Amino acid sequence: MTVEKGNIYWGYEGKREVQRRVDIIETRNSGTQYIHWTGIKKDGSEGKKTWTERRKFEGWVKGLFEKGGAQ
Questions:
Q1: Which superkingdom heads the taxonomic lineage of this protein's source (predicted)?
Q2: pTM score, two decimals?
Q3: Secondary structure string (H, E, C) spanning the chain
Q4: 49 and 35 in contact (C-beta within 8 Å)?
Q5: What are the pLDDT digits (tens) for 23-46?
């Protein structure tokens, strides 16, 4: 699945279903794309923020949770 900035995607962390919002998609000097995402907690508040390679993030995604549009 191709991810877009501003959308919230869901996938699994172990056996737990989690949601992550894509904040930034950036291409580094090496040509590799990275995604900066924010975890969304069950109560809707923001959790941890981190960078992940785009191909790994897209491999983790199981589906679109909420369409947010570009921020």
A1: Bacteria
A2: 0.90
A3: CCCCCCCEEEEEECCEEEEEEEEEEEECCCCCEEEEEEEECCCCCEEEEEEEEHHHHHHHCCEEEECCCCC
A4: no
A5: 999 999 999 999 999 999 999 999
Residues pairing with 6 in the sheet: none
Domain ranges for the chain, please list them: 7-62
pLDDT-based confidence at residue 15 (cuts at 50, 70, 90): very high
Among the listed residues 60, 62, 7, 15, the one whose alpha carbon sits nearest the alpha carbon of residue 38? 7
Report CA-CA distances (Å) from 68 to 13, 22, 34.
22, 9, 19
At 48, the pLDDT band (50, 70, 90 cuts) reads: very high
